[in-house]
Amino acid sequence: MKNYIEVDEWRIVESGFDPTLNRVSESLFSIGNGKMGQRANFEETYSGASLQGSYVGGVFCSDKTRVGWWKIGYPATLDKVVNSTNWIGIRLLVDDVELDLAMGEVLEFERVLHMKEGYLERSFQVKLAGDRVIAVRAVRFCSIVDDEIGAIRYVVKPLNFEGRFRIVSYLDGDIRNEDSNYDLKFWDPVTDAAKEDGIYLQMRTVKTGFDLGVYAHTRILKGCDEVQVAPRITRATKWIGQEFELIVREGEEAVIEKTVAVLSSLNYHRDALQAAGLTKLRAAVDKGFARLKAEQADAWAEKWRYSDVRIEGDAKAQQGIRFNIFQLFQTYTGTDPRLNIGPKGFTGEKYAGATFWDTEAYCVPFYLATAPQEVSRNLLIYRHRQLGKAIENAAMLGFTGGAALYPMVTMDGTESHNEWEITFEEIHRNGAIALAIRNYIRYTGDDAYLAEYGAEVLVAIARFWAQRVNWSEAKQRYVIMGVTGPNEYENNVDNNWYTNTIAAWCLNYAKWALQQVREHHEARYLEIVNAIAFDPEEVFRWDEIATKMYYPKDDRLGVFLQQDGYLDKEQRSVADLNVSERPLNQHWSWDRILRSCFIKQADVLQGFYSFEDRYEDATLRRNFDFYEPRTVHESSLSPCIHSILAAKLKEEQRAYEFYLRTARLDLDDYNNDTEDGLHITSMAGTWMSIVEGFGGMRVKDGRLSFDPFVPSSWLSFSFSIRFRGTRLTCKISKGKMEVINHSTTPIRFYVKGEMCQAEAHATSMLDLF
Amino acid sequence: MKNYIEVDEWRIVESGFDPTLNRVSESLFSIGNGKMGQRANFEETYSGASLQGSYVGGVFCSDKTRVGWWKIGYPATLDKVVNSTNWIGIRLLVDDVELDLAMGEVLEFERVLHMKEGYLERSFQVKLAGDRVIAVRAVRFCSIVDDEIGAIRYVVKPLNFEGRFRIVSYLDGDIRNEDSNYDLKFWDPVTDAAKEDGIYLQMRTVKTGFDLGVYAHTRILKGCDEVQVAPRITRATKWIGQEFELIVREGEEAVIEKTVAVLSSLNYHRDALQAAGLTKLRAAVDKGFARLKAEQADAWAEKWRYSDVRIEGDAKAQQGIRFNIFQLFQTYTGTDPRLNIGPKGFTGEKYAGATFWDTEAYCVPFYLATAPQEVSRNLLIYRHRQLGKAIENAAMLGFTGGAALYPMVTMDGTESHNEWEITFEEIHRNGAIALAIRNYIRYTGDDAYLAEYGAEVLVAIARFWAQRVNWSEAKQRYVIMGVTGPNEYENNVDNNWYTNTIAAWCLNYAKWALQQVREHHEARYLEIVNAIAFDPEEVFRWDEIATKMYYPKDDRLGVFLQQDGYLDKEQRSVADLNVSERPLNQHWSWDRILRSCFIKQADVLQGFYSFEDRYEDATLRRNFDFYEPRTVHESSLSPCIHSILAAKLKEEQRAYEFYLRTARLDLDDYNNDTEDGLHITSMAGTWMSIVEGFGGMRVKDGRLSFDPFVPSSWLSFSFSIRFRGTRLTCKISKGKMEVINHSTTPIRFYVKGEMCQAEAHATSMLDLF
Question: Which residue ranges does UniProt annotate as crossing the membrane (chains A, B) (predicted)?
């Protein structure tokens, strides 16, 4: 755990330069716009510890796998986000001495992430050889107005000398992935160019064949006046640069403005990339840095209007939640259904930049409430687009008849994970995808989604479950053997209660979805039936299975059992563990972890979260009291579920404590792993803790419902959300809830079960009893 | 399945050259002497498909592992047999054209493995460019009289021309392992030399630091006369050669005799290797090829006297069993307790050339009956030597107090396998090691072994089980969670019946062993108690656990359950499987295999084999009838157990059918994998099928016991064995058993439960009723 980030409600601030923290800061100060993003690397050369990282959504490489013992059903290669052309690079040579913060004496240093306006700023003073002191101020952002544009303003001032400055503005395509399994490089050069407008570099990924074209325009100004200096073009392998040389006087500011257009063959024919890039670049250059930056601030203001969470009385919490919201919106904007949300977003390479069930289980609820409906809809369509591959994936494992098993980890629908106990067995992910459809429809009321996309996905998932179960003669019930539940500290167990529960639910929900489509979209229904060779008899089997599903439980304890045999384990409590053993996954052998009763992340309790309406509070209470003490929360996705359930059980203090575990996970580098990238998807979980936990927000009968409280250490908190065409801000303080309806129509909702109404453009004050 | 080996009772014969079979033949015709061995590669250059393989027992490398997702408890590197200096190499250039069977036209070709005399012979005629025909006859063996000596006699005759022959006799140390995970090479050069006596090459393994020195003497003869031709020395990277040039007339024979000494730093200081090698080499050269070969034949005759199995009426079976016995004795001679038996012996690299539980479960019974007592004793001492590392291994997984977990795969005691479900979970191997001690003592009566070595191993194993179990409050029994049984088509199951059974047995047996030592070797007992900090109270816990162990069973079916929940699986029969799905491991995803009821190899039935005295025949019958139809025998170690149990159940035809599955496994290349090496350890299983199955041989109350029958397609069979200082040959024909006592003392034994006696140097004829 670190504690070096200054507390500020709207900014992330690092003061002073500590090279040992640089990789952490590179993650924290990352910028992105949903289409591309990058770590907060320095523009100038830096020879210290750094993970140079620029990533473009949907552009991935295919890495060789490392598998000790191959199993049939494993994918041959692993797709992963590819670290791509470094477009921020600006070398600075002062009288032939390279500016490098690892070499010079850093006198002042400040790095600031401006979350309100969406840009990164860095300023420093450094003393070079001969006591020459230079001040630099660099501002950079990835535009969310035009998400193919990046801009840098890099201002250099010699404070106590006049010098000859050589400035090399370059594009470096010779980039490797830090996590490449065999140190392979994934980029081949295609072409480069140096024109009046700037320099261009086009690279192509090996095997996967994505082209990435980057066009960069650089101009040099002194004060506000452009310096007319003809650049010298230099080239190296997969590298092109423009070198400017100028004399800068003591106290004079030299300004380097670098504008780039980053285009990929996802959106353009590869032969058209260069021309399209030039068009984009020219438009951006014409606007100029100041206007680009002003537009950026406006666009971010609009995002914040619908998503901000305000916390009074706790500036650290305020900073934490804004940081999370900011990073989520930097990662995913929902404009392209081919993109998704990697657990590390654009801030690192871990987890391959790929899509996990995190998206459906944690991110969809966040985007549903804070972004236009299309955003979460596109997250759902992402899976619909990949249905064919999910069916192929299931077929590879031996399933037939259009059954789909969505991959555990994927870039484009192909499975990208090779651990049998996860790849083949952590199949509850299929349920998460169905559940996200339910959540989307429940929140938006967009029933038409089922006809358009949802039903096909739901049927394919139901077909999977219908084959994945088997009838147990011994139990006279349908069972699901050999699975890994959300608690990955158990592998290959039989009858994981959560998995059995979600499987049966999927079967029922698919049946319901088909009925909806048949009733309301008959033509489409027939089209679907035809397209997927659907036999209405299939539903009878779904019914039969769902009705006769086996659910492990213990009547004496009155709890559901995480899996068959769970009670045969030695029953211990996390409280009994020595602190030196935590986290278990860094101290215990896998053998010991598997055999212990300790739970990595909410499992049975995840089911209580997903299907809360089914269970009495007393049942939840018994299960919570049983499983919570056994849960080590060694996934950052776990505490939010416990927080929400504790809130439901009116355990306000505990709800708050669970929330605290991830509130500033990255800002304080709790797990000592922020250097590898931020925990983007778990950030959505923190938002859930506040809105669904403290705010008690649900959708019931098509209306919002709240059951809020304020954590005792806060004065108040508020959150802004969208709901079916309205925009609301809900502020909760002790004993009071204020609902501001920003919309032109009134809205009715429940508070603690009572129907309330907020008039258009009005604020309603409600007492919380 | 292939069928190209000619049937011959004492020889393995390949006639005609089929390059597509070459790798298979290289395995089949392998030679070895327990210390070193090699595949039947050609002496001359061969550019076709080949696995050049020379291996030296106990000399191993440390390979980088390939693991997708690391788990705590995994070893950092994997030890594996290292493919080492090629000492057979003889290049032949005829008028500057390289002799290479992949290039010339092969007119005649025969490869013969002489099992009776222990040598490999190859003769061929090949037509080179210009219609020049050459005849070659090459004889080669690894001496079992001096196991550091190899000898080659390579005779060349130009049939229709006179030519200039350049002969390059070389040592090539630039060898790589075919199975190197990252194409690493594992040998560094140390030194080389070219002296009057020959050439020398010394190499050292990277990381593990074994030195291997090979000294080679080569002489050229025409007829019986040595040709005085001064060799030219040539060197390349890790390579040294002697080049001879001579004119050979049409019809004249040029003879190349190459004698080598292969010495390793296992047995000599590395600085002494060269001198020691020269001494060895000189002695061998002085003897000359003919005498070396004659001594080899004598030594093999002695081995056969105690181990031959004769089968009348089935020449293929006869060839098969002799091949198995021959290969087993080529692999292990029992002179060195640091050596063991890799599943592929010296015939390939698969399974890392390492030690598995195959040794204890399958090989020990074979060597007990066919080799001097020291041989199996040394196999046991091998594990005693590695006890310290087994304790370290257990400690790495979190076990304390001197508990030992022997590795699943090892060269020197360090675990060399990285699959959690095997490495951490297939722990029944610990039981196999204890069981081998029981079997050794039962067969030999060498109770003193317990005091000297056995008790320490047994206590450490018992300590492991005592920690590995846990008390189930739910079952009110001790349970063993998270294991993989012998049936590796189930992973991470709870309460594998076989594992629970052997665990409880180990606890009882360790207790018994300690009592034995205390009673008969009190001083040693106190020494042990002191050395291992043994607390006599430990035994109370062992008792408690063994008494209250949980054994899964189904009362309705009257069978033990392979594991908890086995009956929840869909119950199918192997007979229901489509032939196109077999073997399952090549056609089914791992997911499907794990969830199916199909059993890779004997599991519950392995327990019936190991502890047969505990169970009534009716119990065996029910379990056999239940499990046999579910067993796919996709391990070559499985059928022999079923064969022996079928024989016990008087199912003679089925016993024979199970025997057939491995009788000629490699000779007929049943599994299409003989090219990777022979299934050495399963060869012992075939022997067990004949002797323990058809012969019904057991040890009861310190005496041999037989319950024999002749398979209906055989006329008779006989086997020679040793037993406590006697040597017997038992011949079984229809209705009769003939026992020849070759010893100077009479011996009493049981036949079908009746006590019989065979007088010294006499033959007893017994009627089988």
Answer: none
